[in-house]
Amino acid sequence: MPVLRPLDPAFPIDRQLAVDATPVVLVNLVTLDKADEPRFLEAWQNDAAFMKRQPGFISTQLHRAIGDSSTYVNYSVWESTAQYRTAFTHPEFKAGLAAYPSSVVATPHLFQKVAVPGICIA
Fold first, then answer.
1. Residue 111: beta bridge partners?
2. Alpha helices in the chain (DSSP H)
3. Chain centroid to CA 27: how far?
4. By three-state DSSP, how is residue 73 classified?
5. How far, in Å, CA of 107 to CA of 72, rounded?
6. What's the CA gap between 16 and 62, in Å, rounded?
């Protein structure tokens, strides 16, 4: 079972899930012991397959840190916080968390695009 550590302790994921926003991007920084990488990848793949079937899911991607680091970051795009909340709190998803190695520390946080004139569009 992974440990959930807030990126922003003043506004952890459980509080973020209560905010209605559209669309949202989940960014999740994950650290783990190197020996646990195969088990982590299998559990993540199963979770991603579950999420892909959920209403409001748009996409996901997993990235591994370069070099000898066993740090990962994944992001997923959702139509709304409400739809992500439904998937994140679904009993099937919660049961799947037990498949993660105990060394996993996940740092999930929800974001929205920001418009910056001449650079980024929202």
1. 25
2. 13-16, 37-52, 81-88, 91-96
3. 5
4. strand
5. 11
6. 22
Q: What is the pLDDT of residues 62-100, one digit of tens each?
A: 999 999 999 999 999 999 999 999 999 999 999 999 999
Contact 109, 16 (CB under 8 A): yes
Nearest CA among 90, 29, 79, 36 for reference residue 57: 79
Which amino acid is it at 38? P
Strand order in the sheet with 71-78: 3-4, 105-111, 24-31, 71-78, 57-64
User: Which amino acid is it at 43?
Assistant: A
What's the confidence (pLDDT) of residue 105?
Answer: 98
Residue 32 burial (10 A CB sphere; 0-12, 13-18, 19+): buried
Q: Pairing state of beta strands 24-31 and 105-111? A: antiparallel
pLDDT (tens digit, 9 = 90+) per residue, 6-51? 999 999 999 999 999 999 999 999 999 999 999 999 999 999 999 9
Phi/psi at 85 (5° precision): -60, -45
**Which pair of tokens denotes residue 35?**
């020996």
